[in-house]
Specification:
Largest sheet: none
Number of strands: 0
Shape: globular
Distance between the termini: 38 Å
Protein name: DMT family transporter
Membrane topology: Multi-pass membrane protein
Keywords: Cell membrane, Membrane, Transmembrane, Transmembrane helix
Helix content: over 70%
Family: Belongs to the EamA transporter family.
Pfam families: EamA (PF00892)
Structural class: mainly alpha
Oligomer: single chain
């Protein structure tokens, strides 16, 4: 088996655990309040990842800390909005809605570059929007507040990814990523102190949820993604990440006894199709740029 194949398998495992995180978040909400969960999740993840990369953690500067604090705050917002949203929507819905990020990133990039999205991206946007409406629209022709909060989380995560691509050019990506988790944990702890009562889980399921989120879905997934992305292409990574909502729905069906409805199947399929089209368009653009570069160098 080639190194790239092993890296792709690792990315599938990482994506599977991210899908599992929605189930852990729902379980966690039965034991703790939102900011408690965010604080514990990120502090545990920071401690585990920090121990593994402790030598790299010593190589810091003001620029890295500044970037990590911004991204840590955005992570805190994404995690918090997702948890608030999960109080009134299903884990399956949340998984598909958060995958909007795949389509939102090229939209925001087009806005920043002051140009219209390509036809493929426009088609992907339309498919995704129709999928979101099918998935979330109620009989009363209204949206659940939880779906709206998760959609806002997707917007924040898209902004996070765009900033990440800019910030990581000037800093060590692993050290920078670990410090993000630390700052997200600090923001969670501060908000917990002001708006909640700091506590720890008192039930087995609560501890499983928190440790699962901290160690498996954050520390392991962060490290696994960092390793795998060295040996696989960004497009492979993006296409594999598109599987996250499918894993979220499967785990919600198994562990939370959520019902698979026709709404979920049709809406989810449209969203997934939109994500795949967006990723394939990025692959085409990347190959086109490389081809142009080769042709220019040949003259």
């Amino acid at each position: 088996m080639s190194i790239q194949s092993k890296a792709n398998i690792l990315m599938v495992i990482v994506t599977m655990f991210w899908g599992l995180s929605y189930t852990f978040m729902v379980m966690g909400l039965d034991a703790l309040e939102t900011y408690n969960i965010v604080a514990l999740r990120c502090i545990i993840a920071f401690a585990v990842a920090g121990l593994i990369f402790y030598q790299k953690m010593l190589k810091i500067n003001k620029q890295m800390i500044f970037y990590a604090s911004i991204q840590g705050f955005l992570l805190f917002v994404v995690f918090s909005l997702s948890l608030f949203g999960l109080q009134t929507t299903s884990a399956s819905n949340a998984g598909f809605i958060l995958s909007l990020t795949v389509v939102l990133v090229p939209i925001f990039v087009s806005i920043l570059e002051k140009k219209l999205p390509s036809r493929a991206i426009t088609f992907a946007i339309i498919m995704t929007m129709i999928g979101i409406c099918v998935l979330t629209l109620q009989e009363s022709m209204s949206f659940q507040i939880g779906d709206i909060l998760v959609a806002i989380a997707a917007v924040c995560y898209a902004i996070y990814l765009i900033l990440n691509s800019k910030f990581t050019k000037n800093v060590d990506s692993i050290t920078y990523g670990v410090y993000q988790l630390g700052f997200a944990g600090i923001f969670g702890a501060v908000f917990c102190l002001f708006f909640e009562i700091p506590t720890i889980p008192t039930t087995t399921s609560g501890w499983i949820a928190i440790l699962g989120l901290g160690i498996i879905c954050s520390a392991f997934c962060f490290i696994g993604q960092s390793v795998a992305q060295k040996y696989t292409s960004p497009t492979h990574t993006g296409l594999i990440f598109s599987l996250e909502p499918i894993f979220a729905a499967i785990f919600a069906l198994i562990f939370l006894s959520e019902v698979v409805t026709m709404q979920l199947l049709i809406g989810g399929a449209l969203i997934l199709a939109g994500n795949v089209v967006a990723q394939l368009e990025q692959l085409y653009q990347l190959r086109f740029v490389r081809k142009q570069a080769v042709e220019e160098n040949s003259y």
